[in-house]
Amino acid sequence: MSGHSKWANIKHKKAKMDAQKGKIYTRFSKLIIVAVREGGPDPNSNSRLRDVIEKAREANMPNDNIIRAIKRGSGELGGGSYEEIMYEGYGPGGVAILVDATTDNRNRTAGEIRHLFDKYGGNLGEAGCVAWMFEKKGVILVEKKDGIDVDDVMMQAIDSGADDVEETEDSIAITTSVDKFEAVKNGLKEANIDVYSAEISFVPKTTISVSEADGERLEKLLDALEDHDDVQNVYSNYAS
Known about the structure:
CATH class of the largest domain: Alpha Beta
Number of domains: 3
Radius of gyration: 18 Å
CATH topology of the largest domain: Alpha-Beta Plaits
Strand content: 15-25%
């Protein structure tokens, strides 16, 4: 997951997700089930469910799959009892890692995640050991392509309530508070600005670099964690 900035990790993850449709549909199904059980089956009154459904549709998840997951979450159909767990630990070179998982078997998932950390030179830690190094933020990426006026995008984002706007080599990265995330995202869409990616993320307060050897092991660890069936997101403060 190397790149010139922390935002490259998000683009890498989205490209990888696009190439693994079957597995992604299963992950979205779990998220829909959890969202329904927490806030009900109506996306109009359940903002989390609405956001998950929107992302699922962007990934071309069939509508029948979405409806089936909603019914499982509401109890109309049988389904696993999922819970969300955040694992925390360190990778090679002391890189802080957060692993966001959704599982129906806490003990199994914990053992498998611990095994991956151990296998690639990391250490799974206790709750709270690295979470303080991250901030929960809305992150919106707009690709820099023909027809995009960077200044207009930045002004629209700021006017809609964004906390910060950062221009990278090929993207405009917009960060927001969790409360302002929907307003900024909708403001960009209303201005006909094509949003490449929009999600609530854990953004590292600072990033660290590691040696080439540690970097190779770290990328193997991050890839292995992302490939785990129960893992929804992996966050780190790694900057190559």
